[in-house]
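Quick one, tokens below. Sequence please?
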């Protein structure tokens, strides 16, 4: 098990001693050391793209491989308050970020997961020799592709040019904009991990940002987060999120040819926790406790956690 964190979990503003959305690679390292995460999933920002291009040109690529474990298409459309803040802090626009994802992966010199939105990438253009181009199964994906089963999902994803999927613990349960829901977790979750098509997963929690879309799930996500950051993993195991993580580990069949620096088949879990203003001082410690709970859960089912050394 490898545990990572999204750079979108950081805050847009600069905080003394802590990286923000505007951080470069070197500024991200202390956060990994503090939380125990092995590396980051990067949504491309101007600062990181420029930093990587400079380091690639000079041959200084070790830190790129040490900090970046995967890339993710941004959700910045430049609209609304979020778009204004995202533009201000250098988060690339959604469509532009696909090009940067390929560039970041090329600089690493080994294939990494690249998560994209099929509604914006119908040609699967993030799937290259440097990336495992993958899709998050969620309500709008099932609706857009008119799907009702995992078999249909995997076939449709392949036809779009993607190589596999990235199950997400919240999006697997969250209803879409039109009110429809993805297939029930009990019907598809374990089979997704047994399919040999999962290149990583997202462990998503404290999703208050989904309150308007799905208030019931948003509330449950907050409760799950509190369970994971409490003392020990006992409470975490008694949540639906805990059950989903156990099912993922126990049913996981690594994709053929999936490479990892350890040389072993590894299920990569990327922590996604939105930057709530009310938690700004507590977030690093909360991330660290969350990772500790994930590691305890992994050990409880015989998996070996890969943490920042």
């Amino acid at each position: 098990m490898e545990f990572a964190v999204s750079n979108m979990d950081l805050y847009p503003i600069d905080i003394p001693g802590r990286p923000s959305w505007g951080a470069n690679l070197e500024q991200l390292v202390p956060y990994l050391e503090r939380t125990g995460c092995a590396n980051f999933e990067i949504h491309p920002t101007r600062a990181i793209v420029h930093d990587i291009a400079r380091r690639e040109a000079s041959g200084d690529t070790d830190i790129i491989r040490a900090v970046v474990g995967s890339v993710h298409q941004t959700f910045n459309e430049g609209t609304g308050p979020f778009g204004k803040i995202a533009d201000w802090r250098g988060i690339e626009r959604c469509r532009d970020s696909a090009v940067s994802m390929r560039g970041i992966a090329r600089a690493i010199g080994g294939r990494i997961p690249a998560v994209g939105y099929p509604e914006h990438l119908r040609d699967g253009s993030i799937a290259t020799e440097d990336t495992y181009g993958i899709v998050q199964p969620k309500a709008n994906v099932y609706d857009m592709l008119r799907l009702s089963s995992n078999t249909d999902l995997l076939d449709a994803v392949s036809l779009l040019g993607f190589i596999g999927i990235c199950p997400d613990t919240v999006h697997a349960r969250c209803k879409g904009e039109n009110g429809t829901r993805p297939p029930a977790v009990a019907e598809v979750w374990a089979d997704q991990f047994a399919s040999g098509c999962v290149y990583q997963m997202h462990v998503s929690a404290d999703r208050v940002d989904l309150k308007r879309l799905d208030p019931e799930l948003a509330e449950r996500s907050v409760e799950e987060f509190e369970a994971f950051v409490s003392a020990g993993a006992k409470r975490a195991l008694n949540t639906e999120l805990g059950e989903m993580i156990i099912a993922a580990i126990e049913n996981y069949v690594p994709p053929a040819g999936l490479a990892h620096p350890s040389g072993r088949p590894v299920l990569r879990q990327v922590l996604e926790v939105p930057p709530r203003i009310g938690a700004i001082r507590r977030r690093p410690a909360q991330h660290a406790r969350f990772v500790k709970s994930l590691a305890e859960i992994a050990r409880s089912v015989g998996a070996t956690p890969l943490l920042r050394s």
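The longest strand covers residues 2-6. DSSP finds twelve helices and eight strands in the chain.
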